[in-house]
From TrEMBL:
This is DCA17 factor. One of its GO terms (biological process) is protein ubiquitination. It comes from Podilymbus podiceps. InterPro entries: DCAF17. It comes from the Eukaryota. The lineage of its organism: Eukaryota, Metazoa, Chordata, Craniata, Vertebrata.
Length: 550
């Protein structure tokens, strides 16, 4: 056997047994892979949980229910009632009230809220920053950061005085950059008749979160962006301006802030601005409008779409629009962002005859796929290169999910027992309540499951079931019946959060109900988990609130 010689003529020393594996392990560690790190353990645990959730013996039991005269919100295992004055943990089998605040006045009413979670791997100035908190916006233009578990006020920022009313919170970059948007400024009718002009339409205040820091405030002025602006948003570093005629225009927000920022400000620091002296973020001065757009910024992209419906996603980048004519409602065009070219098979039309339109969006799993939902059909589409033409993409079906309508016969001609032929004067709609119809489609990212809610309502009694599908192939893995009657005329939200299912229902006259289901692992048959029959309920009062137990 000839000896091994290394480069330069040196004799190579034979590797010790297992040395190759050690080198691979060191390389994997350098790239962030390590068999004992927390991320690997967490992924394994979620994989096990997914198997437990989907196995046949696992049931979801309606453990408790509560009702409210005000909207109910859910965020990461916490249920908020009474305009965020009451917080209940949904993790325990019995409702556990985390905090209950006294009823607030109308001037303290919360307009909007966002859940803020601690970033990983960063040093933060305060120990409270490492725990989840709730950013809330009040009707009096106060921005508060509350402890998610106790409701304690951790930070207070006063936005501005009477020049505008801030109403909406949203993420520019999730858990990193937050945007506070005002309601559209509109003059009273008397002022308009008197000839008074209102040039500022919206205000936007932008913050870096944890630690909370002020980036800047800007105004959307009709002198710069035009008279027909109807809405505005900031998302993923893009300023999105929408117009009444269906036009959508995109601008680089970072470039705008760098070009037009007059002076940076820090929260809590004294300032002298336009003759006013005060403290940034404190009452009564609030925040200065320090980004003054004096000229039309460079346009990145524009498109015309019905009802300003416009989405960007996929790989390579594509966008989805509906041609800007009412006759095209329900028709979606998928085009390349690079050159506006329509993808092959890029016109998606389910040709639904229904009261509620179908909807389409890019899959939230970052796979670049597209989900198209109709009354009885869910299509998951993918982008792929056209054969022999790498410059063009085509839309292909990855898989589809079909509603169970085996027993539904929509025959225009029927024959009675006596032999008389009866012709129907009309056909059923595709979303007729008596046929199983998809109402909600969602994605559980931690378990990698696609969830769907399908409903059938005959008379006043509506039956709904939540189904879990394999996100990769669409295979049905689990079906969970929802025991409460589902009325298709009401507003509904369903949350699937690992081992928890939550159904929030809004009835007429501002009556809200919350049904909490939790995972139960039992090999024995548990009829009460899946039966629609009436079961005995126990009522319990906690913190002045009534809860129902089964």
């Amino acid at each position: 056997m000839r000896p091994q010689v290394a480069a330069g003529g040196r004799r190579a020393v034979p590797r010790a047994p297992g040395a190759h594996n050690v080198c691979c392990l060191l390389t994997r560690r350098a790239h962030g892979f390590y068999a004992r790190d927390a991320g690997v353990a967490h992924r394994k645990n979620l994989g096990l949980l997914r198997k437990i959730v989907c196995q046949e013996s696992t049931k979801f039991k309606n453990v408790w229910t509560t009702h409210s005269a005000s909207p109910i919100a859910y965020e990461r295992g916490r249920i908020y009632l009474d305009n965020y004055q009451c917080c209940i943990s949904s993790i325990a089998q019995e409702p556990r009230i985390l905090y209950q605040k006294p009823k607030c006045s109308k001037s303290e009413k919360i307009e909007d809220a966002l859940l803020l979670e601690c970033p990983l791997g960063e040093m933060l100035p305060s120990p409270s920053d490492y725990k989840s908190s709730l950013i809330v916006l009040t009707v009096q233009n106060w921005l508060l950061r509350l402890s998610a578990d106790s409701g304690e006020v951790l930070e207070k920022i006063y936005l501005t005085g009477s020049c505008c009313k801030f109403r909406y919170l949203s993420w520019d970059t999730p858990q990193e950059v937050m945007v506070v948007k005002s309601a559209q400024n509109k003059l009273p009718a008397a002022a308009r008749q008197a000839g008074i002009q209102q040039s500022v339409l919206f205000y936007l205040a932008v913050f870096q979160v944890l630690p909370l820091s002020f980036i800047g405030m800007l105004e959307i002025n009709k002198k710069i962006f035009g008279n027909s602006v109807t809405d505005v948003a900031v998302s993923n570093g893009i300023l999105i301006v929408m117009y009444s005629m269906g036009l959508v225009r995109l601008y680089n927000f970072q470039a705008i802030s760098e070009q037009f920022m007059e002076q940076p400000f820090s929260l809590g620091h004294e300032f002298n601005w336009n003759g006013q002296v005060g403290v940034v973020g404190k009452y009564p001065f609030g925040l200065p409008c320090n980004i003054k757009i004096t000229d039309t910024p460079p346009l990145l992209f524009e498109a015309s779409s019905l009802e300003n419906a416009f989405q960007i996603g996929g790989y390579p980048w594509h966008y989805i629009i509906t041609p800007n004519k009412k006759k095209h409602k329900g028709v979606f065009h998928i085009c390349s962002l690079k050159d506006n070219a329509l993808a092959k098979n890029g016109i998606q039309d389910m040709k639904c005859c229904s009261l509620e339109p179908d909807w389409i969006y890019f899959h939230p799993d970052m796979s670049g796929r597209i989900i198209h939902v109709g009354p009885n059909l869910i299509k998951v589409l993918k982008l792929k290169e056209v054969k022999n033409n790498t410059d063009q993409m085509e839309i292909a079906e990855d898989f589809k999910i079909v509603a169970n309508r085996e027993n539904c016969v929509n025959n225009p001609v029927t024959v009675t027992a006596s032999g008389r032929v009866v012709k129907k004067r009309f056909n059923l709609l595709d979303d007729d309540p008596e046929q199983e119809t998809f109402k909600i489609v969602d994605y559980e990212d931690e378990l990698d499951l696609l969830s769907t809610v399908a409903v059938t309502q005959i008379g006043a009694d509506g039956n709904a079931h939540l189904d879990f599908h394999c996100n990769e192939h669409g295979i049905l893995l689990k079906s969970i019946p929802l025991l409460e009657s589902w009325d298709v005329t009401y507003s509904h939200e369903v949350y699937f959060d690992k081992d928890l299912v939550l159904h929030i229902e809004q009835k007429p006259n501002r009556r809200f109900s919350c049904y909490v289901y939790q995972m139960v692992c039992d090999t024995a048959k548990d009829d009460e988990c899946s039966s629609h029959k009436k079961t005995e309920r126990v009522f319990c009062k906690k913190g002045g609130r009534i809860f129902e137990y089964i």
